[in-house]
Amino acid sequence: MSKSPWIRTVRLTKPTLQDNTADTDRLISALKTDLQTDAVHLDLNLLKELPEILRKYDYKVRCILFKDRHRWLVTGITGVDDPRPLAGLAVDLGTTKVVLRLLDLTNGRTLGESGFDNPQLAVGPDILIRIHFAETSGGLKRLNELIITGLNQTVQDLCRSCRLEPRDIYTVTVAGNTAMTHLFMGLDPRWIIREPYIPAVNKPGVLKAAELGIQVNAAARVFIFPNVGSYFGGDLIAGIFFAGFHKLSDPAILVDVGTNAEVVVGNKNWLIACAGAAGPALEGGMTKMGMVAGPGVVDRIAINPDTHEFDLHIIDGGPPKGICGSGIIDLAAALFLSEMIDIRGKFVPAVCGKHLKQIDGLAHLVVVPADKSATGSDLTISQADLDSLIRSKAAMYTILETITTSVGITLKDLSSFFVGGTFGSFIDPRAAIAIGMLPDLPLESYKPLGNSSLGGAALALTSVDFLTEIDGIRDRITYLELNVNQEFMNRFSAAKFLPHTDASLFPLRFLLPPIIK
Amino acid sequence: MSKSPWIRTVRLTKPTLQDNTADTDRLISALKTDLQTDAVHLDLNLLKELPEILRKYDYKVRCILFKDRHRWLVTGITGVDDPRPLAGLAVDLGTTKVVLRLLDLTNGRTLGESGFDNPQLAVGPDILIRIHFAETSGGLKRLNELIITGLNQTVQDLCRSCRLEPRDIYTVTVAGNTAMTHLFMGLDPRWIIREPYIPAVNKPGVLKAAELGIQVNAAARVFIFPNVGSYFGGDLIAGIFFAGFHKLSDPAILVDVGTNAEVVVGNKNWLIACAGAAGPALEGGMTKMGMVAGPGVVDRIAINPDTHEFDLHIIDGGPPKGICGSGIIDLAAALFLSEMIDIRGKFVPAVCGKHLKQIDGLAHLVVVPADKSATGSDLTISQADLDSLIRSKAAMYTILETITTSVGITLKDLSSFFVGGTFGSFIDPRAAIAIGMLPDLPLESYKPLGNSSLGGAALALTSVDFLTEIDGIRDRITYLELNVNQEFMNRFSAAKFLPHTDASLFPLRFLLPPIIK
Question: Which residues from B are below 8 Å from A when comparing CB atoms?
């Protein structure tokens, strides 16, 4: 028996006149004993190859398996010493970007990774536009073809770069939001966006790659992460799985920030989730100079408390052309800690001095003057930008407070604070705490997860039992509908101050300004 | 809930903001409760249609189901009052002829029946030639296409004549011998005919119609009857199922005579089977005048004991052109009872008188003189023909004796004697008993089954639990290898007399000659 749970080496007793069990039934019987199960299934395609394979390898073969709840599926049969690789593919099916990771199924090692812009962007940048397009004649088919074709192309390229072939891929895991997984399967998404917001399916489970049009091994199975509803998708379930919530004793939290902030609190016994608009400010999409991280973009900012000079870190160096989400949070924290803005987030002209400029009657702070920027114009942040950022950070904190309060704990009770996505990877928790966007927990509590959707999809490929684990996570989630009631508004109002009206919540108020390494 | 076990009517609670379970999961959950199961599966194709169907029929739908061991599969979803028929298709996959029966799944009633010559006859009449052809390049594919194309054509014609469409067929059951089912599935049959005679599969189980190329409903499932080995196929398992062995308290026997005689003895607790060459004599394939039943063929013969005149029954009347299996057995019995042949089966010239003729030094008995035959020649039976018939009948009786002896019972202990196939439908048991081919049991023990393969396939369509029943039958069968040892030869020698050396086994020796009605 090989080490990996996805692969089993089976030695069959050879048939005789006295023991004339058929090839397939002989193999299934041996696997049932080996796996201690009563359900093993082989596809017709494998049945067609089996007689030759068994005789070629003298009845000693290696089986590639997939466990679909109580049923084991054989997805491949090779000779024991067959040198061909056995690979799995994890897919993060993002609305904007799709990322693939190829793994060696025998040991879980990453073989390669590749991403591509979601070709559905040609139809529309946001999922709402795509859903409306799906309702037009041929629209759903077109959206489905775009994503499947794009995926197949990238699978081919990725395989080539890893010196294997698509047919070496036996298992695929796909994590995406509810709408994206619907478009991926060719399912009608129209009811996702209409009250009462009903997906076509919560648990798509296991499908054949071939029926989805995915060009990998003919017998390969595709697992699609389940969703909890229209607004809490498989990408987040993958994140919870990746963070390991289902194994934690103490309550932890996971925050994923995109257009919405999606939040999960829980431990191995319970999970509660909610999603709410946190505003685009946190992703760098708000200010005039805001943009997603990339070369020439400011991602770290500090302010010298004495001179009030800006200290910038620019990705790949050179003159800056904009500022990304983490830079904006740094900026707000630095402005506040250097007292250039007050606890309401308003510019303090006496401190800002020459940095402040009136444009169209609105106060703007010049972060990079025109002669030092890549655009030839000033890079500025306006009072309106700051107000918007503060509303976003207040919404975020209020969501965090509301969800923890709903289960009778406080933010201080959280043992781990997982932060997903680009946001989690790049923000400086000290800056986020300084402005009161994230709670004042010990810094070591903050754990960036990176692409947790991809991470969860890849993690699934390291354990044949993943399906049961993920089903378990999904079924344990209680979705909390965020009611914007008086209590919520009171919390929101208190959180609209820097860091908060209740300063006792933020002893780190006296933290030194963030320093660029 | 509708009456039929294949169909369930389900009323779902409608989704609300508080109960936002997805369409698929909502339906599956209701079916799980209704069916008291934990495994219900829907194909991707149905997932695609489900949101529209549920809303169109206001969450009250009729599900067409298939039970694959522990898993329930949904193969169709319609409105409760949808007038489209729900049909099942039973297929007897014969080497020579394929017969289809269409049933109404809601009540098990036969809608229509149709047969066609197996198009693989173009490759070769017998299965051995076809298996060798399958080993040539493209041969297997060609044989598979021939049978699938032929089946699809006849399904279409049969549906048209029953005023329904192939897409109304949700379940298909297929019974055939081991080689035919392999060719039907496109499986390599070469090891079936080579020692130690190993099929590719014993229990093909349930496949999707689409993956077999069968053009019925896209979600339809196909059940292929299991085999016990290369020489005991699904057609016989279907026969056992049809005869109801698995419900009998007393031991019964089933005999199916083709090129081989296939025999099963058993009851609800045990089943023992064997197959042996019984000779083509019994199917009308031996004598020069032998032929399969059809217009102008003699199927019944009596001899006036006083005048020794022949009394013939000709199918559809007119001058006879040949004689079929049942006619030959009648003839042998009549010759023996009128003492025109002795207990060794040799002509008694003194009694045969003018009927006897020497041709090429061999005694021939003229059954129909040239001037009364359709061929313009005498229809005769030679001494060699008779010797051959007697060897066949002796082989048959010896097999019956051997199999019953092997389980410690005698032929007299059999409560029912099922006779399958054309042979069973047309022979007169009195004639077969008179020559000692079949044992001397009360006539009411003999039960012709007709096309028991088709009968079993059709019976399966009347109960959603058939798969477990058939699996159970198949697993209970012990296959008895017929060893042609001294004991067998002793029995065979004794059975080579008319009716047998031990006359006490055949009190019906004194039966009146068969009389034509």
Answer: 15-17, 20-25, 39, 44, 47-48, 50-52, 55, 69-71, 185-188, 190-191, 195-204, 207, 211-212, 227, 229-230, 481
